[in-house]
Amino acid sequence: MATPNPGSNLEVTPRVTRLVDPETRLPLELLVEIFRWCDTSLDYRGLRLPDGLYTGRAPWLLTHVCRRWCSVTISSPQLWRKITVNLSADEGNEDEDEDSDEDEYTEGIYELTKLFLERSAQSRIAVIITGGKAQPVLDLIIGASERWDDLSVYAESEVIRALVPIIERLPKLSRLELVRSEYHRETEIPGSDTEELDMFSVAPCLRDVTLRYDPLFSMLVPWSQLTQFTTSYAGLRPILDTLRKLVSLETLTLDRQGDEGNMEQLPSALLPCLRELTITTGPDEEGNPSFLLDHLSLPTLRRLTIECEDSTVCPHTAALISRSGCHLRSFKLDHYDTLDTPLLGVLALTPDLTELDLCGTEATDAFLTRLTRAPRALAPEIIPPPRVVPISREVQPGAPRSAPGVTHLRSGHR
């Protein structure tokens, strides 16, 4: 009998290991897709600013796991398409070498941005620009504007104005978010009374826009082609003037800031395609958006969310539904003081309602009694005639959120 050669095992074992190793068994396409889910660089919106150095997250981390992962990561352009350009070094540096540190930081950001642009090849890119003005870095990222798919700018006005060279160079841009970091209503931008910023006026694919820029309505975008729009508003006239241009809009989110201004007679705004409307008042604001509701006509509205403090919003909401002739399917009322008879008037006009969310409210016994005893006249799809859906003033932990025939019905304190 032949004696086994121990050396053959040394040759077979690595091959077997490679065959059973998940790292090598996964197809390249699947591995790249998994890697894409590791990138959270755009998840910070509204929460915190990202780290412009990227070293603590994908795709950099993926290059340190093993040789194959490093090779796959570097050669996959889609993993490098999210580019964060943080133009400011850490604040609070009072050393004598502050200027040199700033230059070194800018140089580092420049090289990182250049590397991302190279590794993303010719794929579409999502760009986030934050901080102050570093012209070399801006010039570099502006040079790739024809590849922009998603742009978010959280910066001072001078940075936004520095984007002027991108005009008519945005063939792929589909989403835009502009937030001026020194936002104050009493803050003036030099030249803002006469100058209109038009660098985004030509963007054939642009559909989703968020503008929090003061003064808001000096920014020109292709209004008629937008399907989603988010903004803050103070005066009634300027917001109505803008809404009349949004003939294709499907989703609208408005944050009311301060007094709506002179309540003169103004032409109403017809939004023929709008299906979802969200209106909020700031956390420190009092009042409600009643005057805006009185100047809207929304025949295709299906989802309505209102967050405010003043109970008089309900009659204006009922008037909006009646005037528009819409078939509301979802209604959410938040930060409301007391649920009472006016809300019943809204429900009486919404026979197609399948989702009712009453959050942060107090309900009177009379309201709850009327709501549960007259389901047919109020909202038959929310409260089916054969059943009684209990409504409590508090939502108990672990309690079911819906009943048969109910998509969502909730009423209680937060």
List the helices and strands and how they pair.
Elements: H1 6-20, H2 22-25, H3 28-37, H4 67-74, E1 82-86, H5 98-119, E2 125-131, H6 135-142, E3 148-155, H7 157-161, E4 175-180, E5 208-212, E6 228-233, H8 236-243, E7 251-256, E8 269-270, E9 276-281, H9 290-293, E10 296-297, E11 303-307, H10 313-324, E12 330-334, H11 341-347, E13 355-359, H12 365-373, H13 375-378, E14 408-412
Parallel strand pairs: 1-2, 2-3, 3-4, 4-5, 5-6, 6-7, 7-9, 8-10, 9-11, 11-12, 12-13, 13-14
Helix pairs in contact: 5-6, 10-11
Overall description:
The strands form two sheets. This protein has a twelve-stranded parallel β-sheet. The protein is built from 13 helices and 14 strands. It is an alpha/beta fold. The protein is 28% helix and 18% strand. The longest helix has 22 residues, at 98-119.
End-to-end gap: 81 Å
**Proportion of residues in β-strands:** 15-25%
Largest sheet: 12 strands, parallel
Give the low-confidence spans.
42-53, 183-194, 383-409
**Sheet with the most strands: spatial strand order:** 1-2-3-4-5-6-7-9-11-12-13-14
Structural class: alpha/beta
Tally the helices.
Answer: 13
Q: For the residues shown, what is the average pLDDT?
A: 75
Q: Characterize the overall form.
A: globular
Radius of gyration: 28 Å
- Secondary-structure element order, N to C: HHHHEHEHEHEEEHEEEHEEHEHEHHE
Instruction: Report helical residue fraction.
Output: 25-40%
**What is the tally of beta strands?**
14
Protein name: F-box domain-containing protein
Organism: Mycena sanguinolenta
